[in-house]
Amino acid sequence: MPSNHIIKANAKTSLENKWSRALSIGAIILSILCLYIVLLQLIFIPISNILNDITSTFIIIAVTVVSAQLFGMPLLYGALRWFWFTASDADVPVSEIFCYFGSGKEYLRALSLSFRIFMRSSAVLFFCFLPSLIVVAISSPTTYSMFNASMPYWASSVWALGNMLTFLGVFLSFFLLLRYFAAPILMINDPSITPHEALDLSVIITKNANGKTLSFVLSFFGWSLLSSLYLPIIFTLPYFLASYSVFCRFLINHYNRRVATSFVNPF
Question: Distance between CA 70 and CA 112 in Å, rounded?
Answer without folding.
Answer: 10
